[in-house]
């Protein structure tokens, strides 16, 4: 930053940080859509990670300078929120960096293996010029994957290793990508005039995928043998802060969250038992969900389910706009997509570019299936699409000019994002959109899954005892520490999803400590904030106005979310 252009407010510091991050990490620039011609990939070596850490340190120093120069900025609510968010996010990220977590980043969802591939699905491909950028970036994939291997090797030298379960899962994902192979298939629709360049770059990228697979399978896996799945309290606390925006590791915060998650599991189970009787008299919740999977309404065909999910979001927009939300024009476009092979089992959402040229998109992993029961997809698409992730994240893009790009992009906190999406499912239930017993049982199953996540995520990583009133397969293990095997058995008895999904989820929790708890803890904060605002406003409380104000304040962590929502 030059002296002449030095920021004078926290928002300016935050936005300068976004631009600097885009310089270092072109994947972020593509996600934001602010540099469409950028064909680079990030430096995935240890040096690249240190450069990102140094940027965070310099940004924090700049924030300190700005606030010291003008203490009155702390009185401006937008500047105050931005400053708190920026400081908390960067210090949380630095804590992970200094612990060397980037040197053992192997997981089935959020690691460089996946992010390097997924960036191509966000790149424009409408013109030959667009495809030329794709070709140049594809040519850089081998170097990016070599840098990733260099980081893992550096971690191994320091004794910082991922658990074997993560390694074997990612190897399986890479095997699936190579069946296509993925990059060769991705460029198949490219223009004729670039055919040779695209094919050569894709072949090199697919070969690089094979190199990563071979390195993980033949070298890293043996080094990782004996590394425990459980990360322990100290590492878990750092991760939990990163995902939730709160120091849950202090005091009894994690034990309290674990106990609350168990109580939620029991509460939801009673509701499921009542509803299962309506779906199938005499059936348990699991029996009712299995019956719905076999005999309930379903859609046959991959394209047919994509169209059905698209129609569901379009219908939700029409029903909610002007009544429960004010949905701006650019937000009314959201696309339903089919996830590429080798993705994790859970559906997901990708946000729009800053100019909305790339819309928000929901993604359904089909896992090779051709038949799709609807009972467990309705609530899920309210979560991923409308009024869930899409309304929040696209609204953030819409109001970015009133806040800062940082507050509406890089500063996102999982507990805020996933908490809103889970709140959105509950809202649709409150509004009567889940009156069908099958769809409502799917909603309760989604709620139960998030409660179970709190229990098994904290339970496994901290090796807490199975509660004394546990039932079913884990009843004989009361008082014993949770293990992945016990968690999988408990999950299987309390979640109606299929075995492949549950297996993928368990690996996800073990590889992303603290993320799984962000859904229910975030939803709790959203509900507490709404209840407090409603109590304060009384008869004057306007739910639509509250929704729009809440969705327009940008990112907040759990330390601030409920309190800020209560003031709206």
Tally of DSSP β-strands:
5
The geometry reads as globular
- What is the number of independent domains? 2
Strand order of the largest sheet: 2-4-3
* Nearest-integer average pLDDT: 96
The chain-level structural class is: mainly alpha
Q: Sheet with the most strands?
A: 3 strands, mixed
Distinctive features:
single chain; DUF885; 24 helices; 568 residues; globular; mainly alpha; two-stranded antiparallel sheet; 5 strands; DUF885 domain-containing protein; 3-stranded mixed beta sheet
Q: How would you portray this structure in words?
A:
It is built from 24 helices and five strands. The protein is mostly helical. The protein folds into two domains: 10-240, no CATH class; 243-518, no CATH class. The strands form two sheets. Strands 2-4-3 form a three-stranded mixed β-sheet. Helix 7 packs parallel to helix 10 and helix 20 (484-494) crosses helix 21. The longest helix has 30 residues, at 195-224.
Please provide a brief summary of the model.
The chain has 568 residues and is mainly alpha-helical. The chain has helices at 10-24, 26-32, 46-69, 77-98, 112-118, 128-138, 141-157, 164-179, 182-186, 195-224, 232-244, 253-279, 285-295, 302-320, 378-384, 389-398, 405-408, 414-430, 437-462, 484-494, 499-511, 518-537, 543-551, 561-566; strands spanning 298-300, 334-338, 348-350, 360-364, 371-373.
List the helices and strands and how they pair.
Blueprint: H1 10-24, H2 26-32, H3 46-69, H4 77-98, H5 112-118, H6 128-138, H7 141-157, H8 164-179, H9 182-186, H10 195-224, H11 232-244, H12 253-279, H13 285-295, E1 298-300, H14 302-320, E2 334-338, E3 348-350, E4 360-364, E5 371-373, H15 378-384, H16 389-398, H17 405-408, H18 414-430, H19 437-462, H20 484-494, H21 499-511, H22 518-537, H23 543-551, H24 561-566
Parallel strand pairs: 2-4
Antiparallel strand pairs: 1-5, 3-4
